[in-house]
Amino acid sequence: MAKKVFSVIGKRTWRKDGVAKVTGKIKFTHDISLPNMLYGRVLKSPYPHARVRSIDVSEAEKIGAICLTFKETPKVKYNERLVSVPEATYKDRTVLTDKPLYVGEPVAAVAAETEEKAQRALELIKVEYETLEPLMDPEEAMKPGKPLLHESVVVADRVVKVENNVACKLEISEGNIEKGFGEADVVVEREYKTNRRYHLQLETKTVICKPEIDGGVTVWCTTQSIHNTRILLHQIFGIPLSKINVKKAALGGSFGSSIQTNTIVPICVALALKARRPVKLVYSREEDMHDHCCYQVILRLKLGAKRNGLLTAGEMHVIVDIGGHQIQAYPLLGCMAGWWVSLYKIPNLKYKGIAVYTNKVPSCAMRGFGNPQVTWAVETLMDELAEKISMDPLEFKLKNYVGLGDIFWGQGPTVKSVITSCGVEEILRKGAEMVGWNKRGEPREKRGRVRRGIGMARGFHTSGAGGPLAGQTVDYSGATVKVNEDGTIDYLTALMDCGQGDYDTHAKIIAEELGVPLRNINVVLTDTRSTVYDVCTHASRATYVGGAAALKAAREVKGKLLEYASRVLDVNPNALKIKPDEETGQGVIYIEGVPGKSLTIGELASLARHKNWGTFAATVSLRQVKCPPHFTGYFVEVEVDTETGVVKPLRIVAGADIGTVINPGLAEGQMHGGFAMGLSMALHEDTPYNPESGDLTNKGFITDYKVPTAADMVDVEDFKVFFVDTHEPTGPFGAKGIGEGATNPVAAAVVNAIYNAIGVRFYELPITPEKIVKALREKEGK
Amino acid sequence: MYINRVNTKILPVEFKYFAPKTVSEAASILNRYGEEVRILAGGTDLLVKVKQRLIEPKYILNVKGIEELRFIEDRSGEIGVGAATKLSELVGSEIIKEKLPVLHEAAEAVGSVQIRNMGTIGGNLCNASPASDLAPPLLVLNTSVKAYSSSGERVIPLEKFFLGPGETVLKPDELLVEIKIPCPPEGTGMSFLKVARTSMDLAKANVAVAIKLDGNTVKLCRIAMGSVAPTPIRLFQTEKILLGSEFTDGKIERAVQTASEEIKPITDIRSTAEYRREVSKVLVRRALKKAYERVKEGEING
Question: I need a surface site. Which of A68, A130, A246, A603 has the fewest CB within 10 A?
Fold first, then answer.
């Protein structure tokens, strides 16, 4: 296929919000304040499992605070994430609770004139708790006879009893695993335990609610979905959707932590409705760390292969320690199965996933939604298997990977589609050459106190959650494009840019399609009233789905522009083209090879007004019937100090197939950021619990939640990113996603590199210097 | 119920704030309010403690506006540093870089740029954290500090300054005004090493070494460590092993072994006692060798 020449796609341009961000002028929800506004604070449970015997707010009220307890908030059971269909949405929580299930669960809230006063009021509330047996271990929690955290949950308005604290489960099997393992020459089985990471998004959870005179509310909040926030508030408070307006502000990162409507949003709404005044509620970092974390899993994986390098069978058993509530545990179980079966072709397989309630902070999606966990296990076990059959892991992986023409499970077993673009082989071949894969050496050949190792892992993530069938996941987007009377364009989308630059991506797609200069596209800061529905910025879907909606709207507008221009210029509309013109700063409509016959979009739009033809605009809603995987591969060289156990990354080669690259700078940034997060998963992050208090060991303090800083990363010159040349036929201008694929295989690559350096494998993350020193001493002792 | 009291965002404590311009003014405030005053010399530790409600001071005395406490002076044979000198000023000082490179290295290892722009040398010492990055190099430099009160001033050897975590020998009416650092004798080799979770962290363990040789005989040997005892400590037993003897691998290993027995590490959120003991050996060994290399480099270059 002939290479298309683009005007803005693939070009390095300034971010539209770049100047506002680097000068500190952009407004995050944190920065918004309203006249007559009160400040809220939340009273949190100090116990991991308790029942509130009594609560007394009189002292707090005496100093002038508005107080709200579980007694006054709606009793509606809800699930804060509205991405799945009702049959896959497990509801188990209310706005405030009298039975807290983790240290930090909100039981009451206050609002006062200042945050300091609200804090003092909070300290005056007296609560008497009856403490209950805390269940801090998922395998313990599942044992019969343990207290139930939830007696029942609500699924699609049905009350479902909970047994043995199992929140939900899923089993899948294909082929015959007994036969499959029987055919294998080598079988390896391992148990993996991942860390309980915290998202550490820059902006802590924040919400402002302004009650309106018509009984409605206006809400600003940290969210990845303004429409789902609106629908949830409607479900809880019964306010008609037309009277709830959720407004956008810049979002300071999320990494999945605001796919669901944040816990404090309905609390703030209830406070504002009671106070009849606007209320702002901002979580401190410590509160934020007590609010959400990533899914921690115990994963047992068994794979069988023949000496010829073909996989014959696989079995995966996953126990997910979800914490006190389920946000998307059931979809997670499906997705984890999907990530597994979409990495390598396993003819006979069995999967069992169980999500278990424990008295810990509730878990939610975090960049990759179970994929980094699964890929860590699979990509390191594949290396072990390769070693056992004496095959280069790279060749072993290339022999078995799921690629072009194969079935891809983009969102678990209900969202399947055929892969139509794939650059896996090029990523691995080119990366291997760039890093010097064949010169990496064997662990046993390495000597000295500081040893180097090279590791590789590959992965992918879905781009969106669409499919040919409706499935169990809601996935469509929408867009409005309108031409202003001077030829500039207003673009309205409900899709949230979490900070990764989706608005720039969409603006480029529209500019490319309409043939206008990029600066003429104005991305409007919208709200739920001015936009059609978009489900959420998750599943790396903003480019592939949101961008496709923007393209569809732009295409419709372009059709109208050409139709009217054809009348003005007196030619067939099919003969017309549009291109950006630097001189006029406009898109110019012209006929190829016929000079003189042209007009700018501004002239046309202005003419349309004077002639009363109307506005050139289009509003569309779009469902993608696929969610193509974007593929990545990381080659990582590390240095392990065998005396201190410190692991230092030295050199990174990162390849990606994301289809057409729309923003090279931002795409490379995703790879750099994705690496930092994956490295941190491998080496640093965890939120362990103090068995006595049932609280986080670090009590939520960021001082004791370490992630690598810029100084801990490799030099930029030693971080090579390359994009392979692919084109996704169903993507906007051939594009796919990148955000999650950029991090999914990283931890596995780092772990494989550590093995290559010191010959030790670790099955529990994070791999701290303490663990490395201990393991090396034990190895030497043998 | 700390979960509803403690955070790093809101400061719901009311206090009276003083920002004197002179040391004598500051001293008279300290004299008047004694234990009820807390000195703000950067705030990177104090404000965190107040937000965490570990202390609720009635009065806060900011000394950062006292110009006479901000200096770095080269007085032949001694470097004088004003207590309110910022860590970033230490890092940027040509005098420190040239005369006390080990202090330059340690100051650069503290926190982040933002922390170093706020924190001061006096604040770092008075906070008396066992993990202070400045304390070990200052200890091996035989530093003393000057305290000032309305009733006079006194000079305290840094070795005797720390009592325990967060505790010093300063009396409630005393203000730390100056850090007096003797320049090490010509030909001294020095080094500073630190192990932490990331580059922006408190030490799991840190070490500073100063040695001087006559031929290959150790004539001066000072070793100090942080984060391995309730206060930053000099390792006198370890020093004795090396002092007066030949600088050999065998001696180094004996010193390393003694160091691991001399320290009293604990298990906390940053690391384990076991790892600290293990990594202390590595740090002492590497710091000694690095200091030795610098002695040799000095001989070649000098």
Answer: A130
By Cβ distance, the residue of B12, B201, B275 closest to A120 is B12
Chain B nearest CA to A235, separation (Å): 29
Chain A residue with CA closest to B194: the answer is A644
- Asked if omega into A138 is within 30° of 0 (cis), the reply is no
Domains of chain B by residue range: 10-62, 67-182, 189-301
- Residue B275, chain A, CB below 8 Å: the answer is yes
Q: Which string of DSSP letters, residue by residue, matches A197-228?
A: -----SSPPEEEEEE-TTS-EEEEES-SBHHH
Domains of chain A: 18-25+476-622 (3.30.365.10), 420-466+628-781 (3.30.365.10)
Task: Determine contact: A43 vs chain B, CB below 8 A.
Answer: yes
Interface contact flag, A702 B8, Cβ < 8 Å: yes
Q: How many CB pairs under 8 A join A and B?
A: 83
Give the global pTM. 0.97
8 Å CB contact of B4 and A46: yes
Q: Is B267 on the interface with A (CB under 8 A)?
A: no
Q: Does domain B10-62 have CATH number 3.30.43.10?
A: yes
Asked if the Cβ–Cβ distance from A695 to B200 is below 8 Å, we say no
A106 close contact with B: CB closer than 8 A: no
Instruction: Assess whether pLDDT exceeds 90 at residue A313.
Output: yes
Distance from CA of B224 to the nearest CA of A (A): 19
Q: How far apart are CA A236 and CA A265, in angstroms?
A: 11
Q: Which residues of B touch A701 (CB under 8 A)?
A: 8
pLDDT value, residue B123: 97
What CATH number is given for B67-182 in this structure? 3.30.465.10
Superfamily of structural domain B189-301: CO dehydrogenase flavoprotein, C-terminal domain (3.30.390.50)
Q: Does B195 touch chain A (CB under 8 A)?
A: yes
- Please check whether the two domains, B67-182 and B189-301, share a CATH topology: no
> Exposed (0-12), middle (13-18) or buried (19+): which is A87, by Cβ within 10 Å?
exposed
Residues of A with Cβ-Cβ distance to B1 under 8 angstroms: 46
- pLDDT tens across B1-18, in order? 689 999 899 999 999 999
pLDDT digits (tens, 9 = 90+) for A719-739: 999 999 999 999 999 999 999
Amino acid at A138: P
Q: Which of A397, A483, A183 is nearest to A305 (CA)?
A: A183
pLDDT beneath 70: ranges in chain B: 1, 301-302
The reported pLDDT for the residue numbered A1 is: 46
Of A191, A222, A197, which Cα lies nearest the Cα of A367? Answer: A197
Question: Which are the contacts of A249, defined by CB distance < 8 A and separation ≥ 6?
Answer: A27, A28, A29, A31, A32, A220, A525
Which of chain A's residues have a Cβ under 8 Å away from the Cβ of B256? none
Q: What is the ipTM of this complex?
A: 0.96
Res A596: pLDDT: 87
DSSP assignment string, B84-102 = T-BHHHHHH-HHHHHH-HH
* Confidence band of A780 (pLDDT split at 50, 70, 90): confident
Answer whether A704 sits within 8 Å of B12, measured CB to CB.
no
Distance CA(A8)–CA(A16), nearest Å, equals 13
